[in-house]
Amino acid sequence: MLEFLKRIFQNEEVKEIKLREIKLQNLEEWANEKSKPLMEELQQQIEEILMKVNEEIQRARFNVEVLENAKLQNPNIPFKAKQYMEGNRKAYIRAINSFLGHMEINNKDYFYLVDFCKFFDELINDLNKSTLRSYTILLEFFAHETNKIAQNLKNFDNLFKELKSVLNNEKMVAVNKTIEKIQSLKIKTKQKISLDVDFKNIEVSLKLANEEKNSVLAEIERFSKSDEHNNFLKLNEEKKNKAKAFYEDENQVMQSFSVLERALRKYSHIAFEHEEIVLDYLKHPIETLANDKNLVILEILKNVGKLLNENKLQIDDKKKEKSLEEIKKLNKEFLEQFLKKYFSLKAEMEDLENKIKATGVIEKLENFNKQLEEVNLRIEKNNEEYNKLENDVIKTTNSIENLRNEIGDSVKENFGEEIKVVI
């Protein structure tokens, strides 16, 4: 007895429902097959309506011909009125014939008919607006014939309302939305494949760029420890020390001309033959002295000293004393000694500069910097592209998953089957 009851309860256990797996590439065909009975039923209704549309076209064309050939009940109207009537009759018939030409439907595809219904609404509205005047005028002359055509147009409007009602069948709309989602899923899946390829490529590019950067940095590190680079640093240090050693002498000359500035400027106003060189000394004392081959400055300083002693430069006593002291310092022996050091240093500095250039280290460092700039730029661009593609992949993946779920729900609701879409 217990075994019997156990078997009953075991049979009542809810079994796990195994979902039907359908490949995405076959899903649209499967959905179309499932919707075939519904589509056949609707297609029959559509065929009946389109047949009525064709019949109405024939009736309308007959009525147009009747209007075209209709005679006036009162032929004794004024000539101008007759011309007025004929012009409006021709315009009205031309517009109706154009409209009827558009009414011939050869394509019975569901989506084509949905679009054609929208087109019909625009067409009939445009016709009503463009023929209102000629229609009103023709009613005065051919009321019976014109009303017949108006009835044709009304019948067309009713037929297309009926067609829209059939096409907008709730079940069919739901099925078509499902098929549209399947088509969207196919497109998204293709996009995902393309994005995955691009993402893998950018990953590889980014990896290679980082490896290249590390390689350049390692090369820079090795170069910085090389004898070649150490020699370069040694030469630069030597150049720096020589320039520093000469700086005190150079600064002393600069200070002397700074003290003498007022006196020399006043002197330049009265000694026109020395005006240009004096102004050069005030602007660039060291360079001017180096170019003063005949040491004209000694004559200038001698003249300035004389004028200061004779109180002819109008300088206060304190500045006068300081100026005279600096003139004594800047004697021939001092200046010649300074120039000797200057040209000796210049030669040494040029020699060091040539040795530094000869090492080729500057070009190598510039080349390293150029390589780093280029690779860093590539890394930056690759990172931007990587982040963009990563976001696109996530969005597309989420979109695909959402579409799969929506399609599954739609199929269950429309066809009563639970499926799993296999991509």
Overview of the molecule:
This protein has 423 residues and is an all-alpha fold. Helices cover 85% and strands 2% of the residues. The protein contains 15 helices and 2 strands. It has a two-stranded parallel sheet. The protein is elongated and about 135 Å long. The chain starts with a helix and ends with a strand. The relative contact order is 0.10.
Strand and helix layout:
Layout: H1 2-12, E1 20-23, H2 24-34, H3 36-69, H4 79-102, H5 110-141, H6 143-167, H7 170-224, H8 227-259, H9 261-270, H10 275-283, H11 285-291, H12 296-309, H13 317-329, H14 332-359, H15 361-415, E2 419-422
Parallel strand pairs: 1-2
Tell me, briefly, the overall form.
elongated
Strand order of the largest sheet: 1-2
Please mark out the parts with pLDDT under 50 across 5 or more consecutive residues, or reply none. Answer: 11-17
Number of helices: 15
Indicate the structural class.
Answer: mainly alpha
Q: How many β-strand runs?
A: 2
Could you tell me how far the N terminus lies from the C terminus, measured between alpha carbons in angstroms? Answer: 50 Å
Mean of pLDDT: 88
Radius of gyration: 51 Å
Beta-strand fraction estimate? under 5%
Summarize the amount of helix as a percent range. over 70%
Biggest sheet descriptor:
2 strands, parallel
Give helix and strand order, one letter per element, not per position.
Answer: HEHHHHHHHHHHHHHHE
